[in-house]
Amino acid sequence: MTVEMAPSPRGRPITVAEFDALPTDTSQRYEIENGLLLVNARPAPPHSRAIKRLLMQLDSQLPEQWEAFAEIEAELNGRSPRRVPDVVVGPADIDDQLRIRSDQIALAVEVASSGESAVRDYSIKAGEYAANRIAHYWVIDLIDIESVGLTIYTLDDTGGYRITPRATGTVHMSEPFPLTIDLSALTGRRTT
C-alpha cells in the first residue's frame, strides 16, 4: 500500500474544516495524521479480502444493536482528528452521521499488509486510539499471508493499552463481545 504525506494547503498543517471541505475522491483514502494530510492508496486485493471476510465473521456474531463497518471515517480528538480504520464496530443506528465518533467505537481494527502500515498500525494508531479511549483495538497482520496474526489491545485503568501477544489460527475472546475469529479464513481465494 502506497502512503504519502501530501502537502497541506499553503505548506502548513491542515485544519479539520479544510479536510472536511476536500472534494470526494474515492480513488484514495484521506486521513489527518499529526496535523498533516495523509493520502493512502486504496487497499490491495488481499487487504480488501481480509476486511470483507472479517466483516462477515463479526456481523454474524455481534448483538443486534451493533454492526461492523468497513473504512468509515472516524472523528477523533488530538493531532489526528480524522482516521479511517479498516473496520470499526459501532452502533447499527448511525445511518445519519457523516462519520463515527470515537466514543461510539466499541472496536477498531487495522489490517497491516506491509512493514510501513505495520509501524503505523502497531504504534502510531495504537497511541491515538488509546488517547481517544477506544477500549478495544486489533491489528491483523497479513505480512506473512501463511500465518495471519491478531494482536489485541485492551484499554487499561492507566489509559494505555494492555497488549495480548500475537495469536494465529482461531481466536476466541469475550471482549468487547463474545467472538470467535478464524484468522486463516481471512485470506486465500474463495472456494465456493
Automatic annotation (TrEMBL):
Pfam families: Uma2 (PF05685). It comes from the Bacteria. This is Uma2 family endonuclease. InterPro entries: Nuclease_put_TT1808, Restrct_endonuc-II-like, Uma2. GO terms for molecular function: endonuclease activity. Keywords: Endonuclease, Hydrolase, Nuclease. Residues 17-180 form the Putative restriction endonuclease domain. CDD domains: DUF820-like. It comes from Nocardia halotolerans.
